[in-house]
């Protein structure tokens, strides 16, 4: 039987906010506008994360807060766009980042809870973690634009602490966030250089002139919105509704067993853990919505692909923006429900091979001609290789890093389980859909 965590009961971490302010680059930065690619344009929503640290006698929380704040001030010089604000270029109908040094958010808070009290629930994305990564500064007047990123230091009564980060997805994707965090951590040491120089020129992913769409790109819903002067880019977001949150776990043993079963009937040269988990999530999600079963209905899973190594020349490893594309893979409900599970894994594995240099260019050109947003039943985004908990700060490495639950029911985050090295999948769905999803999850393991 697969392990399944119940929704953690500790939703209130008894957090009291002590400081809320804007912080600025420690020296003057040039005034400029940052071009945003066609993928950047549509990712205008926040991604909150939490990073937990054990108590360190050499770095009590008040010292960490001061050192972290100074590190932020230093790193906001090479990352000047993070202290800027979004603006709409009405002549082009495109969003840009105005590098105006308006500042990033900085919050200091204190929890009356200890890490031991959170206990084993610490290693799951707990509902209470939303208090550890605020997404806006309520202290700002209504007429003042909110910052694109907010950083929060929360101390626990045991001396441990959490660093919360809420960043607008327009700033960067997961790999870009890892590069930023490595650079931020490097500045927590005295007299240490940046871990790497961020590459911030997003024009490297600009559409071609003239655009040339050479693939159909069903993964994008074409909205037929106006393009050009006076237009606005669409936002890939969803409505806020009451959701249940659960973590579906697969142990290393279970993953190995599934791979062994697949290898007996599949010709996949290398079966990835992500493909296995994504296929299982797809199978469970295909029937959880308010859709009457139709064996001929086609279900589409969106897989988020890193395009850095897939374009020619390859993007710099320190590219600090969004270098991802959704890839849609589809199958009929009949095959998803009754066909071999190995086929779903094959579809996901083979589908990723479609993302070639020309495919990437074609996708960006499509979005230049016809505004669209990712379109499918469900999107699965992998944290498996990000390694946020491997980053070394002056006070040590995080004991745990995780996404913070939010209102998105159309995206599933897959991450490494800190307990046994397995995989966890964070799912957010309305209660009745969650019941169906959970039943399908357990039925799968009962049948293998």
From TrEMBL:
Gene3D superfamilies: Chloramphenicol acetyltransferase-like domain. GO terms for molecular function: acyltransferase activity, transferring groups other than amino-acyl groups. Pfam families: Transferase. InterPro entries: CAT-like_dom_sf, Plant_Fungal_Acyltransferase. Belongs to the plant acyltransferase family. This is Uncharacterized protein.
